[in-house]
Amino acid sequence: MKMRTFIIRRLLLLIPVLIGVSIFVFMLTRIAGNPAAAYITERMTPAQIAEIEARYHLNEPLVVQYIYWLQGILQGDWGYSKVAKLPVTDAIVEFFPATFELTMVSILIAVIVGIALGTISAVRRDTPTDHATRVLALAGVCLPVFILALILQYVFASQLGWFPVIGRYDDNLYNDVSFQDYRITGFLLVDTILHVDWLRFKDAVWHLILPAICLAFGSIAIITRIMRGSMLEVVNQDYIKTARSKGLPEKVVVKKHARRNALIPTVTVVGLAFGALLGGAVLTETIFAWPGMGQWAASATVYNDWASILGFTLITALVYVLVNLIVDVMYAYLDPRVRLE
What we know:
Blueprint: H1 3-31, H2 46-55, H3 62-74, E1 80-81, E2 86-87, H4 88-123, H5 128-142, H6 145-159, H7 179-182, H8 188-194, H9 198-234, H10 238-245, H11 250-287, H12 293-302, H13 306-334
Helix pairs in contact: 1-13, 4-5, 4-9, 4-11, 4-13, 5-9, 6-9, 8-9, 9-11, 10-11, 11-12, 11-13, 12-13
């Protein structure tokens, strides 16, 4: 079966998953309280409240409510965000680029560092390097995100002054132009490149480093452990022994023969880690005052802004299932033995 057919089948399988997510999110809207609460004020009369409930079909049976709710979601009506003072869809457009940019940089750091450490640890098994790597991986699994964030802020920002403590950019660099006017895509790294503005690009990278490392640290630990275990299994296979017996350099054996096969289970973990990073950005963004979806969702939780919380949940679930589709495709690409029928 061709890769294109495989991708189409995976896309079709996403439909029941997304329907299940939509039902779960819909039930949350009903369990959480009155979905029309964002539109109701203390000065409204019972007649005005009843009019709002009728407008949003809240006086209809639950099944009918779900159909109208799903229709609204598909048409872009996700409710109103009291925290952002915007429609939820507009709030997502506003905050999603910052979170996605942070998550992408974090997963890139996690993949590069995790695969490298896992490979080195397996190749140098039971050496001081291996022991140090395993201790680092254990620390990454055990250390809470908020503790690591505070440590990074204290050491590298407050004491050493290498990086900014909070924020996404330096306000002083945008005195001559507002940040909203400067935006093109919303992704600050991309926008600064499009403007050919290397000063602001450097500033954006500098603000990104600490929160990205903080967010990536736990995933680095998991990827390192999985990669090390996979490499230890692969290096004892017969084809690796054959490659060595042919006189190939050890670097070639490790990079071209062992590591590619060891990446197969690691790719699956990377897909799961991406979803965890996207959801786990709430703590990191709150501590680093990163103006993304995580901070928006945290504020929405404090003020019981359920429309914002559910919008965050829905967009996170959508990105998560799409990332897992990409992981399936990469898995099939890396392992020719996978049957695509």
